[in-house]
């Protein structure tokens, strides 16, 4: 089966985000979901919009969205391995609801749990990251290829989410940081893309859900980056269970990062 056209897919995501997210930014009420995370009207509005738009254009692919019941998510994963949209309509919801300008929408097409198309759109910066398996990654239609460079680990800039790490690893990083400087932006899907664009060097996250990593992991891989879990496994999988992420801009740096983390 021929995959959807990536440019057409980007246009659908961009239009939806501009019309559903931007008018609600800085003017939105928030609620708390059962897992303690924040959800807003913008999350559900954009999920409804994209579910409708995608079904009209590619009805053969059902949509797995973050803002749907867990039972429905599990049913979709078990019954549609050959083709399934995976959507996070608004990653960085806490940022969005707090007026912090760092959030994005992420959409991937999965085949047997593996992303084959990926789009991440940042509507505030008008940056659309996209990738097609085996054919490359792009930022606003410009090829996204990591330049050959080597930044040693002790001179690197890291993005680390301490909240989901073990106390032992978090303590080791806090007391003996191997990198030059550390950040955490609060929007996982953009963190993948900013790493792919070379805006920082190494990445560590203790637990991402499928819609968090699906598009971003493909974009990083197609740009030439490297990623595994803390257990040394591929990040993408068919399970809905959270996955840890260890990633880096370049191959040599990735091996240094893995060695320090004892993977």
Blueprint of the fold:
Layout lengths: L5 H15 L9 E3 L5 E3 H17 L5 E3 L4 H10 L4 E8 L1 H6 L5 E8 L2 E9 L4 E6 L3 E4 L2 E2 L13 E5 L5 H9 L5 E3 L4 H9 L5 E7 L1 H14 L2 E3 L14 E6 L2 H11 L2
Parallel strand pairs: 3-4, 10-11, 10-12
Antiparallel strand pairs: 1-2, 4-5, 5-6, 6-7, 7-8, 8-9, 12-14, 13-14
Describe the protein.
By secondary structure, this protein is an alpha+beta fold. It has two domains: 6-143, Fructose-1,6-Bisphosphatase, subunit A, domain 1 (Fructose-1,6-Bisphosphatase, Chain A, domain 1, 2-Layer Sandwich); 153-261, D-Maltodextrin-Binding Protein, domain 2 (3-Layer(aba) Sandwich), CATH 3.40.190.80. 35% of the residues lie in helices and 27% in strands. The strands form three sheets. Strands 3-4-5-6-7-8-9 form a seven-stranded mixed sheet, with helices on both faces. A five-stranded mixed sheet has the order 11-10-12-14-13, with helices on both faces. Strands 1-2 form a two-stranded antiparallel sheet. Strand 1 and strand 2 form a beta hairpin. Helix 1 (6-20) packs antiparallel against helix 2 and helix 6 (188-196) runs parallel beside helix 7. The longest helix is centred in the first third of the chain and has 17 residues, at 41-57. It is globular and about 50 Å long.
